[in-house]
Every structure is written in structure tokens, then in C-alpha cells.
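I have been asked to look over a protein record a colleague put together. This is what I was given:
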Amino acid sequence: MTRPAIAFMVNRLALYMANPSLQHLSALKHVLRYLAKTKSYGIRYMAEPDKTNLFHGYADAAYGNLDE
């Protein structure tokens, strides 16, 4: 499972590890409380008996041939 919002917050808080303030500690507590309340949340992928391929993913490695 991925949780992009949590990954973003942890990344932002990690920037202040050398010199955290009370505001950062408060934000960390907020993230930890959120995780404690939502630990059962997630996406489940279950196979269907009549289908062989359950999951397909696509990527645009060329970024749409962006010329920048």
C-alpha cells in the first residue's frame, strides 16, 4: 500500500530533523495520531475467478515527449 500524503508529510518533517521546533513536534504527533486511527485503511486487490490478469499498469517514460 502507498500513502502519498503521509510520505509527503514525513519528507517535509525530515527536513527539520537537525533543528526541530515545537511546531514540528506538533505536526509529527498529528501524523502519528492519523496513522493510529487509519491503520486499517487500504486498497485490496482480489483476484476474480474468471479473470487471469487482475492488474495492468502503464507508464509514459518519455513524459509525453515533452520538449523543455
